[in-house]
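Section 4.2 – Deliverable D4.2 (structural model, holo form)

The reporting period included a commitment to supply a predicted holo structure for the target in complex with zinc ion. Inputs used:
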Amino acid sequence: MNASSPTTIDVTLGERSYPVWIGRGLLGDSTRWRARLRGRHALVVSNTTVAPLYLERVAQGLAGLAWASFQLDDGEAHKSFANVERVLEALAKLGATRDACVIALGGGVVGDLAGFSAACWMRGIDFIQMPTTLLAMVDSSVGGKTGVNLPAGKNLVGAFHQPRAVVADIDTLATLPDREYRAGLAEVVKGAAIGDEPFFAWLEAHADALAARDEAAVIEAIARKVAYKAGVVARDETEQGERALLNLGHTFGHALETAGRYTTLLHGEGVAVGMLLAARLSERLDMSAAADTARLQRLLVRIGLPVAIPPGMDAEQLLALMRLDKKNTAGTLRLILWCGIGKAEIVAGVNENDVLAVLREATA
Ligand SMILES: NC(=O)c1ccc[n+]([C@@H]2O[C@H](COP(=O)([O-])OP(=O)(O)OC[C@H]3O[C@@H](n4cnc5c(N)ncnc54)[C@H](O)[C@@H]3O)[C@@H](O)[C@H]2O)c1
Ligand SMILES: O=C(O)C(=O)C[C@@H](O)[C@H](O)[C@H](O)COP(=O)(O)O
Ligand SMILES: [Zn+2]
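Output (structure tokens):
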């Protein structure tokens, strides 16, 4: 495959739409993405790991523009309000006007923070997502959720702000560590588990090819997950209903990530464990069968994802963190529960004692 034939999926939001390009050589071949820039200012936001690897490829496409780059320190702990302020200061220093564009070059941390900064600067300017992790390609770069963490919890501050384009250059995956790659697969499994039974079966059949990073399998997995998510986002851009299903495993997962101070579990790993906890809770509430939970666990294990709560975490502490989840209403837990492969439901007023029982069993 070359840069002239990417797989393209359009995310359509009423009258608007933007492309997600998936393929090889896309960063260095700027013909497509450069045409999405409207003004003469661009700020590339990246981090200290990704910029040395890939900034040069993007820089070539920015020739002739007034542009600068800003590098975050690496890690989830840097998805912070303080860094948003630093990005905004970099935009001010660049003299960025309303037609400026922020380019997010990196994983989901960079994408969420850069996108939120773009949403804030002059009440909203363009941004382009250039995801360089599998997780960012299949999930965070698509759909317009942007934001940062607070010490109290994940993603507590943010905005819906859609990108102008998503440039998923799979060449960048060559340098992605295996653990990060596997974490990205968790969000692929999630999409299939929520709403696409045939895709789940395909993942089971291609688990070995995916673990070996077979190129055709990787591109198909990215494209199928992005197409699934694009459909959900098109129907419910701002999470008034159906979109909340994309949060399967996340109320548990975010609590696990936060409890581990963002160093114990990666986001995708938290989602993997979180999905299993959600599955067990669903079984307890007679919404799903043990056989489905076992099938989900088998696939996650084959991919090499964790399926247990890390040692030292406490059930009560996790429940307290879950109480701050954004989906909750009227002071009660509102969770995404699982009804077996390919089906999930939003359930309000979940009894905390049931959640605690599942957490206690998993932390015992
Ligand atoms: N907005 C959304 O819809 C959405 C969806 C899913 C996840 N998220 C968020 O995304 C974040 C997780 O994203 P992530 O898993 O990409 O983590 P990340 O951004 O921390 O990237 C993972 C690691 O890989 C490194 N890296 C990135 N690209 C690389 C490359 N090509 N080669 C080598 N190293 C590379 C990074 O420097 C980092 O160390 C979380 O904050 C999560 O909340 C958001
Ligand atoms: O796009 C969505 O909607 C998602 O929920 C995707 C999730 O995988 C992602 O982790 C998202 O950041 C979670 O958002 P939050 O609303 O729970 O903060
Ligand atoms: Zn997620």
